[in-house]
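Internal tracking record. Fields below are filled automatically when a chain is submitted to the structure queue. Please do not edit lines marked as system-generated. If the sequence contains nonstandard residues, flag them in the REMARKS field before resubmitting.
Queue: standard
Priority: normal
Entity type: single polypeptide chain
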Amino acid sequence: MSAFENGVYFLTIEDYTAAEACFLRVTQEFPNCAEAWANLGMARLMAYCDKLNAEELRRLDIGQFVAGIRFRYAKMDGLRDNGMKKWQAAEDALMVAYKLKPKSTTILVGLGLAYLVCPERTDKRMLQADDFLARAYTSANSSENDLEPEALAALLINRGVVRIAKGDTDNGQGLIEKAGKIGKELDGADAIEVEQAVKFNTAMAQRAVGKNAQAIATLKSYLLSVPSSSPWWSVAYKAYFDLQMAMGAEPQSQESLTVKASQVRRQMAVKLANGKIVHVGESVKDVKDKLGTPASEMPDSSTGLNILSYPALGVTFITDTQEVVGLTLTGENSPVILVQEKGTNGKVLGEVRIGMTRDEVKTQTGVTDWISRKFTNISDERCYPYSPGLGIALIYGKGKNANVVVGILIGSIKAQGEEVVQR
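SYSTEM-GENERATED OUTPUT FOLLOWS
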């Protein structure tokens, strides 16, 4: 699998660090690939957006944006101190893409989103956001349109957010409604993200024109459909609370409007102790170039796969002849696996690490969907606790370590009698 395809997958599962590494590699090899530069910019932009908290979102003073923007294929030819640096790196990559492919609707949408969420909340940035999104909207109705349906919904929502922020509420609400219709045709995480953004921004539009009772009802529906750990939930609850108080009504408590997260981000990449990022789907050559010669390399006769061991870094690679199909983390130097809610700004719920006890796995990881599963891509007949949501399996020790995690499996590992379940 190419670095570009891997990067697209990592964008999809919201592993923005791994996505950035993949697209950076593509831009180094193919510096004229506009699609790679655009996706690199979006990976960086979403890494920036992912760290925004409720207070920072309130200071931006905009509606809930959507980031379903990426190229799936390519032709290979003022807030927190570091916020502006992260944002600038994203804009730099997007501008390279724009210069290479100035009529691309996808790139125009990406730049529009970048200026919409810029830490420098100025009229100039809002004008830039409005300009790029307006041009993208025109392009979306022309032969230059290269948007996937989820990206078209993102364009409509983000342009609607700008129009509402500029006081053009009717036009903004109309764009939001169009996005909602597209969202009904989507599925999975894209459908959920669009639906939530439509509800939030509909409420903001209703509030802007004085339809407070309708805004309150929409906000309650929103609060009951979004995890309370999301910073957007906090922004919405404050808007709901203020409207209720303004109308002389008693607001419901936060607890009564709280829902828990239902999905977590799947793990396919890890950052090692030496700062290098490795991931499933990476080529064997790239792994060796990055980490050097493995301490040992041997075939697994029972599976036909190869095992590359780097004990000093706490990682072993399970590979076929060309690429990594799985990782096994072992030892005190192995990286920690963060458990994070899906969606932009998803809350870190806990972590999985070597040395945890069974009780700690149950109480400290935030993962509850462990099931027992036997894998065929490793020469072992034991059953392992596997989390379908997180996409990892745990290896417990033997004897006195029978209740201690001694290994973590990550990757495209086939369960016995099944198709690939980790990817």
